[in-house]
Amino acid sequence: MISRIRRINAFARLGQFINEKQNETVIEEWVAGAKSKNNWFIPANVSRSLHAIATRYLDAAELEKWTGKYPEPTNPQKVGVVMAGNIPAVGFHDALCVLISGHTLMAKPSSDDQVLIHAMLDKLIEIEPELADSIRFVERLNDSDAYIATGSDNTARYFHYYFAKKPHIIRKNRTSVAVLTGAETTEELKALGSDILQYFGLGCRNVSKLMVPAGYDFTKFYEAIEDMAPDYINHHKYFNNYEYNKSIFLVNRVPHFDNNFLLITESPTLVSAISVLHYETYNSLKEAQQVLSESEEKIQCIVGSESTGIPGIIPFGVAQLPALSDYADSVDTMAFLSEL
Fold first, then answer.
1. Same domain, 127 and 150
2. Less Cβ crowding at N or C end of the chain, within 10 Å?
3. Looking at the 3D structure of the chain, how many domains does it have?
4. No. of H helices and E strands in the chain?
5. Which conformational region is residue 70 in: left (phi greater than 0), alpha (psi within -120 to 50 degrees), or beta?
6. What global pTM score does this model have?
7. Range of the domain at 105
8. Which class for 297: exposed (0-12), middle (13-18), buried (19 or more C-beta within 10 A)?
9. pLDDT tens across 308-334, in order?
10. Residues 211, 280: contact at Cβ < 8 Å?
């Protein structure tokens, strides 16, 4: 097993490679390849995701500080990782955790996101050839000693069945929520628009529901995000979803708001369909916090102003910029790996 500092340096150099201007042609090839396999992965989103990973995850100082909190495993294991593919390179954080902790990665990328995961890990091996023995792409995970699997609530039941006898982390569906007070600035509402619509709302960190004060007027929010319209009206998969959901609302006479690319409807449900945003009203922030606490296990993050006093709330506009220690489902992946 190569030293931790060499592993950190390899990942830091991968981050530098992604961000360096002279490598733009290679990154553009990765971006085009990802788009060719998945029409949701438009070039702007793929580039955004890659550069966010390079900046937020692959900084040498941050990696040292992060890994320094965890002991090295005394007996490196083969860790099977079933990766999600809902947004570009979403499975990379798990790969990073497994490899930087000193274990062997048995990677099963999603069919929706094979290009980026392969490209990034192949480049990592090119940077640090001794990592080649620690990275394996597999179709079956039978030989793994432990598992990390991300999927829907439905697939999680299968994962629990198949992986029950070995150490595992199994993740289910989660989504994110924003709490509004009515005092938000136009800039904050615009940033909220990104939290909702970036990656077409397909990520667990995308806001799919708003908690708003009773009588809230959505006009200011719609005005703040109106310049985002072309990105969504001109994307055929997204806009097909919008037209379908709008027709369902109209046929079933479901009360809703509409700005021609994002539908807003009142619902107690956390998860909303693509192009639809749910909202629920509250009479006090204490009441809003109580509602959210009852669904804590289904919420990935809560967006809003610190002034709400809601614990763990994050600012508008950063939902899709997690830090290294912002673990999916709030389960500390590195702690799990250090204890194997």
1. yes
2. N
3. 2
4. 13, 11
5. beta
6. 0.95
7. 4-173
8. exposed
9. 999 999 999 999 999 999 999 999 999
10. yes
